[in-house]
Amino acid sequence: MLADGKIPQRVAQVAAWHFQNGLTLEELARKEIRTAIGLRRPYFSPAEIQAAIQVVAEANRIVMNSGKQSPAIPSPGELETSHKN
User: Fold this and answer.
1) Which parts of the chain are beta strand (E)?
2) Threshold 0.85, pTM exceeds
């Protein structure tokens, strides 16, 4: 979706951290940036989280319709092999 220009990079980042790192969307919504002077602000905006919820739902729908149990993530060995070809 990111490569096709359908979603912004930051929305893709939320979805990527959710899928790859096992962070819940609630955890990602609570992430903060803390400045040296003690200010705090959300790492992701509410709009980015909302868009990511839709992206995650769509990705899950695609996986379910494909008959796979989980998204296809190549192992490091598969990546090395594909680069050699």
Assistant:
1) 32-34, 40-42
2) no
